[in-house]
Amino acid sequence: MTTPYGAPQAPQSAPAPQYYGAPVEDPGKTLGIVGFVMAFVASVVGIVLCAIAKKKSREAGFDNQLAKWGFILSIIFTAIGAIYFVVVIIAMIAAASSGDLSTY
User: Fold this and answer.
1) What is the pLDDT along the chain (104 residues), one digit of tens a residue?
2) Of 5, 3, 51, nearest in space to 28 by CA
3) pTM for this one?
4) What residues are paired with 56 via a beta bridge?
5) Measured between alpha carbons, how far is 20 from 80 in angstroms, rounded to an integer?
């Protein structure tokens, strides 16, 4: 091929390849991990963090399994803690009423 002025024209090369952007990461992933760990440490905090992580993930179109399991475990541990607290209070009341507790 030549240009209108008679000079040779360089051959056309293939277009540059189109690269896709970085893969989108789950926005609730980190919060789900923290919530899962908090399920074992402070279960009420774990409930809140996992609920927020699940909501963020759902809005972005992801299924955050770690946040789901953290949420379930947090609820179970909170229930166990509440039952334990009630049993201890009942035992203290029973001991106080039977006279087993004494003050010096």
Assistant:
1) 556 666 666 667 777 777 777 677 888 999 999 999 999 999 999 999 999 999 999 998 999 999 999 999 999 999 999 999 999 999 999 988 887 666 65
2) 51
3) 0.69
4) none
5) 48
**DSSP annotation string for 21-90:** -PPPPPTTHHHHHHHHHHHHH-HHHHHHHHHHHHHHHHHHT---HHHHHHHHHHHHHHHHHHHHHHHHHH
DSSP 2: B
Q: Which amino acid is at 10?
A: A
How far apart CA 99 and CA 34 sit, in angstroms, is 46
Q: Break the chain into its structural domains and give their ranges.
A: 29-98
